[in-house]
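> call design_seq(struct)
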């Protein structure tokens, strides 16, 4: 049923001057859209959806998508372009998400983020226009699919900031083959088998055995032993969106809602929550509620990582449906250390006897520390030769001990720090 508004523009400006300024901009936008579509347009509101769609618009602009067109700007003295840096092209300019009217020719839909200035403050408000409801709904469905396809081209990073959730996409430039993931064979088989059943076979295993189509695993252990490498390998081996969510001190119920609202629309997909124990106390209740809501929907493969499992809220792992399995990523044993060091090519610098001694000498070191051992050996070989592996490893162990104890103030060691 059509409703008649109580107050019409420009009626009684003195009653609400702020509305007059607001309505002037919207009226101008509607007029130019009427010329484009040769018909009146309807104005819609969907705050949650629009925030997500503007992220997709940014991606489309960066990729020079011809489906999107800038037909006008709103204000003359508000910027219409944004400069950003890319590793491939240095600097590029794309239309600003603020103050430009974006028109989608296929659907006859337009979006604009208008800057609003009132009461000595400024903010932006999002508007969407379409000729009818059907066009609007088809547009939203297509934009979700566009966003999903875009997200499969890399890893989407969500970071909680003062200004809300900031997202960007990182291309997977260095694919991590599964063979390069250093884990216990049984654990590695178990994790990748569940990944394959979840994504590569369209969840047929879950349907066949009447298992809810969702999965949650927790990766825990000391830093530097391959949790991130495992996640990168998973992300690169599935043709599904991967979202990497970085929790910060700015994480709130609002950012939690935004993240989970996005990922549930992208299913089937992978959601990685890094350093899950760092969730602020004031946001934990909202997080647990959102987590239950997300995992109750099909298609979410949830991966949590932590270096400090003892700090995790027990409610997170003591309730079925949040995390199904917890895997400890341990310090590499003799077999894994040898495998890693041989993959690095230490045979170029060391004979077999010295290499075996090094494998035993490095017991208790992480994968990251083994990489530092390799770097030090390569540098010493390049500049000095012969190589003193005992001194290299002992110095690394001493540095590790002092880091853990925060014990730096000794005359015989401070000159080695270099900073």
């Amino acid at each position: 049923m059509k409703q008649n508004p109580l107050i019409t523009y420009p009626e009684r400006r003195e009653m609400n001057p702020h509305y007059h300024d607001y309505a002037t901009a919207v009226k101008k936008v509607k007029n130019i859209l009427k010329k484009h579509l040769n018909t009146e347009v309807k104005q819609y509101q969907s705050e949650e959806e629009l925030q997500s769609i503007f992220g997709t618009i940014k991606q489309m602009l960066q990729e020079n998508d011809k489906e999107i067109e800038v037909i006008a700007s709103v204000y003359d003295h508000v910027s219409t372009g944004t400069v950003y840096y890319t590793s491939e092209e240095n600097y590029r300019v794309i239309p600003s998400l603020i103050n430009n009217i974006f028109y989608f020719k296929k659907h006859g839909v337009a979006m604009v983020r208008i800057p609003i200035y009132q009461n000595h403050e400024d903010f932006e408000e999002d508007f969407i226009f379409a000729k009818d409801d059907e066009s609007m709904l088809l547009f939203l469905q297509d934009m979700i699919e566009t966003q999903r396809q875009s997200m499969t081209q890399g890893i989407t990073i969500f970071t909680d900031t003062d200004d809300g959730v900031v997202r960007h996409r990182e291309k997977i430039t260095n694919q991590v083959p599964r063979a390069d993931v250093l884990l216990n064979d049984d654990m590695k088989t178990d994790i990748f088998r569940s990944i394959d059943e979840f994504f590569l076979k369209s969840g047929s295993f879950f349907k066949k055995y009447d298992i809810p189509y969702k999965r949650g695993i927790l990766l825990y252990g000391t830093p530097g032993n391959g949790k991130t490498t495992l996640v990168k390998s998973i992300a690169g081996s599935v043709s599904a969106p991967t979202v990497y969510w970085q929790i910060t001190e700015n994480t709130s119920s609002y950012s939690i809602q935004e993240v989970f609202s996005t990922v549930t629309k992208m299913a089937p997909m992978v959601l990685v929550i890094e350093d899950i124990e760092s969730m602020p106390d004031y946001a934990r209740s909202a997080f647990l509620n959102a987590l239950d809501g997300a995992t109750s929907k099909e298609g979410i493969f949830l991966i949590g990582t932590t270096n400090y499992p003892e700090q995790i809220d027990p409610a997170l792992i003591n309730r079925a449906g949040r995390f199904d399995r917890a895997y400890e990523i341990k310090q590499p044993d003799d077999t894994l250390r040898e495998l890693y060091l041989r993959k690095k090519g230490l045979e170029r610098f060391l004979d077999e006897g010295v290499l075996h001694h090094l494998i035993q000498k490095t017991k208790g070191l992480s994968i990251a520390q083994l990489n530092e051992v390799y770097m030090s050996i390569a540098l010493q070989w390049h500049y000095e030769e012969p190589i003193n592996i005992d001194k290299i490893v002992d110095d690394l162990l001493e540095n590790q001990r002092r880091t853990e104890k925060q014990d730096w103030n000794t005359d015989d060691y401070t000159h080695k720090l270099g900073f």
